[in-house]
């Protein structure tokens, strides 16, 4: 029977079990997950937080990670500034990036979510407003969400992947994982 684990990745953790490229010791999945033969289905950047799905089933891993399956991934994104309707519409239509147009995204402004504090905290500036956006994409380009918000003139300050498909990190604290029965 395949195993499926939901992990709430803290800021600054590498989405690998080892970090052979760094001369300094950075936290990896092995610092949090002691389950043999499971592997992450996709990655989450060092400076992003939230849901990482791990499995020991190669087919399931491919269905989750491979963009051809278009599994929705939802992010809670704190952006700099106050995106107006035109900027949000650009996200909904797709944004031109250096590597081409993105697929249309689901995008809506949301109230500041009740999340755990980030360590280190997000830089606060009195003179620059910020707001939160819920963004759902169906591809997985490198740093795609950050590049999309920058392209509409609202750089990402904090990025939390909340869900992949029907799986969510609701109730899973940062650095903890939950095995899901299949």
Quick summary of this structure?
This protein is of the alpha+beta class and 182 residues long. It has helices spanning 58-65, 85-93, 144-151; strands at 4-9, 39-40, 49-55, 73-80, 96-97, 100-101, 106-110, 130-137, 156-164, 167-168, 177-180.
Describe it.
This protein is of the alpha+beta class and 182 residues long. The protein has two domains: 78 residues, Pseudouridine synthase I, catalytic domain, N-terminal subdomain (Alpha-Beta Plaits), CATH 3.30.70.580; 93 residues, Alpha-L RNA-binding motif (Alpha-Beta Plaits, 2-Layer Sandwich). Helices cover 14% and strands 30% of the residues. It is built from three helices and eleven strands, in the order βββαβαββββαβββ. The strands form two sheets. Strands 1, 2, 3, 4, 7, 8, 9, 10 and 11 form a nine-stranded mixed beta sheet that branches. A two-stranded antiparallel sheet has the order 5-6. β2 and β3 form a beta hairpin. The longest helix has 9 residues. The termini are close together.
């Amino acid at each position: 029977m395949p195993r499926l684990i939901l992990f709430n990745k803290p800021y600054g953790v590498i989405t690998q079990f080892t970090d052979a490229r760094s001369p300094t010791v950075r936290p990896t999945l092995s610092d949090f997950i002691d389950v043999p033969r499971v592997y992450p289905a996709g990655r989450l950047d060092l400076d992003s937080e939230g849901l990482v799905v791990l499995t020991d089933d190669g087919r399931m891993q491919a269905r989750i990670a491979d963009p051809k399956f278009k599994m929705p991934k939802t992010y809670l994104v704190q952006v700099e500034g106050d995106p107006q309707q035109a900027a949000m519409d650009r996200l909904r239509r797709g944004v031109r990036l250096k590597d081409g147009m993105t697929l249309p995204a689901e995008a809506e402004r949301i109230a500041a979510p009740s999340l755990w504090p980030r360590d280190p905290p997000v830089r606060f500036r009195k003179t620059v407003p910020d707001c939160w956006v819920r963004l759902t994409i169906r591809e997985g380009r490198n740093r795609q969400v950050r590049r999309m918000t920058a392209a509409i003139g609202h750089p990402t300050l904090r990025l939390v992947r909340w869900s992949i498909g029907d799986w969510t990190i609701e109730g899973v604290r940062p650095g903890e994982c939950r095995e899901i029965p299949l």
